[in-house]
Amino acid sequence: MKVAHKLFNKDEKATGFLKVERMEDIFDQVQGKIDHPHRHEYYTVLWVRDGEGSHRVDFNDYPFATEQVHFVSPGQVHQVVTLTRPTGWVLTFHPDFLLAADIEYDFLLDINLFKPYSENPPVILNDPGRLNRLMEVMSWYYEETLPYHDKALGAALKLFLIECIGQCTLDNSIHDSGGKNQLLVNFRKLVETHFREKHKVGEYADLLFITPKHLNEVIKNSTGITAKEYIIDRILLEAKRLLLHSDNTVKQIARELGFAEPLNFNAFFKKRLEKTPLQFRREGTVAVGV
User: Fold this and answer.
1) Does residue 83 sit in the same domain as residue 222?
2) Which of 149, 173, 197 is the last residue of a domain?
3) pLDDT single digits (tens) 119-145
4) Which of 44, 46, 85, 290 has its CA 20 to 30 Å from the CA of residue 68?
């Protein structure tokens, strides 16, 4: 029987933390208790060394396989479904930890492992031994109280993520250097900050001091979709998250996402999904068992 449970039971009020745990220990602690899909304000790295089950991130399901690493961004809705007791590691860290550990936020954007609003399949490892040695070091520092503790953990974390990139077979074209890719990084940051109130390409182009045409060309070449589509996808994903995982009314969600009138939000949503927000909520609630 499938057992869905909340593997990551952290203190949401804590900031500046990094935590290293074993999947099997957490599984034993929760005793297979069923939990609904949930979201956090911190990053999660889930390294499945062995196990049967799947990881649902937003609206995508990724079946477990041996030696795979999943990456979850703050705000993403996720759920772990296990068929057997898994083995592996769970690494969680708050965005404030990056500051304490002298890791620039741009580094996370540049490595492109954490994708908060697009498909994000796990990395399949071809040399897990090297990564495991890094995790053992990180686990040791996590348990010890030493001078420069955060910086030591941060250095190990950075090496771990770089090693994941080295073994990554996914499309991570953002790693290539150059002004166009820096523009993509800056655009992504601006969208994440302003998508609730800025819906037009021209508004982002103004913030980046370029023309809307140039912005569309760069984003299209880098991601395969236009800047307008990118913004729409981000708004739509947040709408779907709120509809399925909050008690807010459609009117409240419309206002939260920058729509002056619920009718405008309904039209926006239906045009892209061919169903109203209420229809999506009803169908989605049944599907996830909320």
Assistant:
1) no
2) 173
3) 788 999 988 998 999 999 899 988 888
4) 290
